[in-house]
Amino acid sequence: MSEKIKILGAAGIPKEMVERLEQEIGPVEVLSSDSEEEIIKAIQDKQVFVVRSKPKVTAHIIQNAPQLKVIARPGVGTDNIDRKACEERGIKVVNTPEASASSVAELTIGLAIALLHYIYPTCHSLKEGKWLKGEYTGKTIEGKTWGIIGFGGIGRRVAEIVKVLRAEVLAYDPYVPDEEFTKRGIKRITRLEELLEQSDIVSIHVVLNQETEGMFSEEVLHKMKKGAYLINTSRGKVINQKALGKALEEGYLGGAALDVYEVEPPMDQELLSLPNLICTPHIGGSTEEAFSNATEILVRKIKEIFHIKETAPLGS
After folding, report:
1. Pair 182, 272 in one domain
2. Is the same domain home to 87 and 118?
3. Max intra-chain CA distance, the chain
4. Which of 158, 175, 212, 282 has the most beta carbons within 10 angstroms of its beta carbon?
5. Does residue 48 lie in a domain region?
6. Which residues pair with 72 in a beta bridge?
């Protein structure tokens, strides 16, 4: 393809990604906001739109993007993109689920350790001049049963790390073949309720769709072990936050950690202020390595779609 591909980048895409896209594919215009009006104005002559978890790419935007061929998402979730409208227009949607698997998995483990060892409240109290060594008794991951919901790239990486920490690992995912569990030595659970009943720690690694939205209702939360811990680094709408807040406040759950929320940024300060909740601002995939991996994969996938040949290195 002789003409340069024009790219529109969502507000906040990393500078390094912009530079690499311009070097390998074509000029990039970066948005200053997520407003639909600004997007429609800027997208008129663009063939590629690079987004993150924001903005919401609506059917209205897609219908007003006459030259758009590709929506590229450096990351996993594409629930902010109207996939049906893309299909109707023949627009390809590509993402990079493999890029951030280790980053999200490490945050998941870190949140679990922080919960079980009371890292947040003890750090906070010490900074306030309080020495509360005798008031907190933590727990180890070793010897516990860790249930993984969603056995894709992130779930598998979590399983690898948890096994090293000497916990029993159970996993639930009705869409993954048996051999993926067997070859990793992971016990497959075919009923979600069974996994919840057996697990001391549960981590969620699913995509957001009609099946998973609201998956953790009040009823499902109460199928977990009393005193168990819940970690969500996938998508916020998988959990009913009101029901989670109630389960934490009543002491039914020992604790929870959230990196994602029903609405982002979250507005439920009552939930966020609970002492047995740890929260982070959707940073699971926000590492230098994840951004670098996503950039490489995204550039390759876009070049494949537009049949752009790889540039030969100097001296070859």
Report:
1. yes
2. no
3. 70
4. 158
5. yes
6. 50, 94
91 and 122 part of one domain: no
CATH assignment of the domain containing 127: 3.40.50.720
Rounded to whole angstroms, how far apart are CA atoms 100 and 290?
Answer: 5
Same domain? 172 vs 35? no
Give the span between the Cα atoms of 67 and 70, in whole angstroms.
9
Domain-embedded: residue 2: no
> For 28, phi and psi rounded to 5 degrees?
-120, 130
Tell me if 313 is assigned to some domain: no
* Domain shared by 95 and 227, yes or no: no
Residues labelled as active-site residues: 235, 264, 282
Q: Which domain holds residue 271?
A: 101-279
Residues 161 and 291 in one domain: no
Give yes or no for a contact between 89 and 62, defined as CB atoms under 8 angstroms apart. yes
254 and 296 in a common domain: no
pLDDT, one tens digit for every residue, the chain (316 residues): 446 899 999 998 989 999 999 999 999 999 999 999 999 999 999 999 999 888 999 999 999 999 999 999 998 889 899 999 999 999 999 999 899 999 999 999 999 999 999 999 999 999 999 999 999 999 999 999 999 999 999 999 999 999 999 999 999 999 999 999 999 999 999 999 999 999 999 999 999 999 999 999 999 999 999 999 999 999 999 999 999 999 999 999 999 999 999 999 998 899 999 999 999 999 999 999 999 999 999 999 999 999 887 654 434 3
